[in-house]
Every structure is written in structure tokens, then in C-alpha cells.
Design brief:
Elements lengths: L2 E5 L2 E6 L5 H10 L5 H14 L4 H10 L3 H21 L16 H16 L3 H14 L6 H4 L2
Antiparallel strand pairs: 1-2
Length: about 150
């Protein structure tokens, strides 16, 4: 079960556990590969070994060769993330903030899904995802993602 912190300023934060250290190490090593196709292949192998790794799905979306491939990877990460959130006590309301490292893979997948929905003209999904991100973390987007 994740840590749940009650805020005096609203609903509780849900904090997903960090990805396993060995998986994060493998993803970091993959990030040093300069050839994008090879990096994607290595990340895909990591995700195949750890299909619940939200950070891995978000990276696969980032490395996708097309908008539709990116959309698909981000959507899987988003749905896997919803499953993990529910498993960790989230009941459809409350914050899931970027400042908690374990939440970042889910939020990156949701952000990617929003961007790809916009890119393919899926306006309702774009707007729904954008609103959901702000509901989960009212300070969205974090500075490191706002600069894209």
C-alpha cells in the first residue's frame, strides 16, 4: 500500500511506490544509447520484463516512431497507472502530484496521451486529459515539462 498523506488544504495525496531500483538502473542505462531505434528496442525489452513499469511506458511513448505508436504506449501507461493508483488506495479523487517520484511515470504517460490526442485531433480526449492532469496536480505542469 502506498503512503497517503492528508492535506489540510484538500484531499489526500496518493503516492505510488518508486519503480524497482534495478528497473530504473536499466532504464537509465538505456537512456545513454544514442541510436533512437536501439534505445527503443532496449526500453521495449525492459517493459516486456516489467509490464507494470509506468516510467518504461512513458519512455516508449517518447521514443515512438509515430504519433499513433506514441498514443498507444502512453495509453497503456495511463491505464496501467490507473490500476496501480487504485491498488494503492486512490478512489478516483485526491492528488497524484509530480513532486512524488513514484507518480511521475503515470503523470508522464497521461501528459503524453494528452499531447498525442491533440496531435491526432482527438479534442475531447485532449481536453479531458489536460483537465485530469490539473485535478491530480494543481501546479501542473512541472517546470521541467513546461519547457517542451
Amino acid at each position: 500500500m502506498s503512503d497517503v498523506f492528508i492535506s489540510r488544504n484538500g484531499p489526500p495525496d496518493t503516492i505510488l511506490p518508486d519503480e524497482p531500483a534495478d528497473v530504473l538502473e536499466r532504464l537509465a542505462a538505456a537512456g545513454t544509447i544514442t541510436d533512437t531505434a536501439e534505445r527503443r528496442r532496449v526500453v521495449a525489452d525492459i517493459v516486456a520484463d516489467h509490464p507494470t513499469c509506468l516510467e518504461g511506458w512513458a519512455i516508449l511513448g517518447d521514443l515512438a516512431p509515430s504519433r499513433i505508436d506514441a498514443y498507444a504506449a502512453y495509453r497503456v501507461g495511463y491505464h496501467r497507472g490507473l490500476d496501480r493508483l487504485r491498488h494503492n488506495g486512490w478512489r478516483g479523487s485526491g492528488f497524484v502530484r509530480w513532486r512524488h517520484r513514484g507518480n511521475r511515470g503515470f503523470l508522464r504517460a497521461l501528459d503524453g496521451l494528452q499531447r498525442m490526442a491533440a496531435a491526432i485531433g482527438e479534442r475531447d480526449e485532449d481536453e479531458r486529459c489536460a483537465m485530469f492532469l490539473r485535478q491530480l496536480d494543481p501546479s501542473w505542469p512541472p517546470p521541467e515539462l513546461a519547457e517542451r
